[in-house]
Backbone:
């Protein structure tokens, strides 16, 4: 199962990079930035996996089975994707608010 999750993460990361490349070719900077952030979030999953494994290891011990290890590793990627999407949503909300303020002024 872990092999399939790793494969899926690699496919999604590659797709995000291609979408980012295509966006920058169209000079869509915000879209490029969003796709690249998503790809980076997946790429940094290994760093977050330390944060999912450490508490488990300290409280329970080393993951005893493949299912637990797969869950902990997948959680690292999921956390990163959720954080990136949260940042993008906040940025879009701020950007939208700024656009509304600019429209009121003009």
Residues:
């Amino acid at each position: 199962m872990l092999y399939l999750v790793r494969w899926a993460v690699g496919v999604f990361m590659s797709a995000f990079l291609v979408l980012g490349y295509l966006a920058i070719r169209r000079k869509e900077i915000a879209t490029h930035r969003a796709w690249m952030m998503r790809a980076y979030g997946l790429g940094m999953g290994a760093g977050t996996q330390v944060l999912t494994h450490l508490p488990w290891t300290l409280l329970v011990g080393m993951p005893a089975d493949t299912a637990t290890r797969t869950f902990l590793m997948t959680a690292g990627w999921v956390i990163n994707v959720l954080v990136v999407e949260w940042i993008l949503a906040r940025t879009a909300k701020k950007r939208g608010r700024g656009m509304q303020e600019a429209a009121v002024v003009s």
